[in-house]
Design brief:
This protein is of the alpha/beta class. It contains six helices and 15 strands. The model has no long low-confidence stretch (mean pLDDT 94).
Length: 258
């Protein structure tokens, strides 16, 4: 874990209310793994007081850069969207436990709901480099909220799209194309990130078919270090685990969504 001032190289809107920020943060980039996140201090002032946790969307250790994909949902992310190249952010990271890319199985299905697509590109890159076949399911409210999937296709991944209103891809939930891939025998592993209702549905599907995998949870947090205890996840074995230090990645079947 490192603390570094990251210089903004780019900050552009890539879909409705979704922005991609590229930061120059060489030391953190060299230490980062797919599935981890950083905690950003947006201002030297006390408002906003807490740092903002953002998933790593791209990691380039050679260039020393990190790309962060974020959805504008409140004051902090709105502030981020107005920042210009050349400005700096104080970056704490990398934080959390990333994806396990060594799970056995040849066909990996990645499921991203909304901004949950953010941590999946480094995973897809690692899995294809390991020789696995990757299918990506992108879910969104409508076509306006879909980000560009070209880079996934360039990796050789199959891309499936599902939108709630049917304005792009399959109408309805991400579980429909997931069921189709399972039925076709093209799903040995599932990796998912998105809102809780989506994760619950994906896990129910995975467990029903005996398919292993992992999910990445999203949570409000303060320190990102396991001290403030603001990001608990109830687990089936009893008690709680925290997104920041125990996650954000958990095994399918580990979390209790009740």
């Amino acid at each position: 874990m490192l603390l570094q001032d990251g210089k903004i190289l780019q900050n552009v809107r890539v879909a409705k209310d979704i922005y991609e920020m590229v930061l120059e943060a060489p030391e953190i980039a060299k230490s980062s793994k797919p599935g981890q996140f950083v905690n950003l201090k947006l201002s030297e002032k006390l408002d906003p007081l807490l740092r903002r946790p953002i998933s790593l969307h791209r990691i380039d250790a050679d260039l020393g850069t990190l790309a962060l994909l974020y959805l504008v949902v409140g004051k902090g992310t709105a502030m981020m969207s107005r920042m210009e190249p050349g400005e700096t952010l104080n970056v704490l990271g990398p934080l959390g436990n990333g994806w396990d890319c060594t799970l056995p199985g040849q066909h990996a299905v990645l499921v991203g709901g909304g901004i949950g697509i953010a941590p999946l590109y480094p995973l897809a890159k690692a899995l294809t480099a390991a020789g696995k076949q990757v299918s990506l399911i992108m879910g969104a409210k409508n076509s306006a909220y879909l980000t560009d999937s070209t880079d996934y296709a360039q990796l050789g991944a199959e891309v499936c799209i599902a939108t709630d209103d049917g304005s792009a891809g399959t109408p309805g939930l991400v579980t429909a194309p997931l069921q189709q891939l399972i039925a076709a025998g093209r799903c040995d592993l599932i990796y998912a990130c998105g809102p809780v209702p989506m994760l619950r549905a994906v896990e129910e599907t995975a467990l029903a078919h005996g398919i292993p995998g992992q999910v990445s949870t999203e949570a409000h947090m303060g320190c990102g270090l396991g001290v403030c205890l603001l990001c608990p996840n109830k687990v089936k074995s009893g008690g709680y685990k925290h997104t920041c230090v125990d996650g954000p990645v958990f095994a399918i079947g580990e979390l209790d969504y009740a």
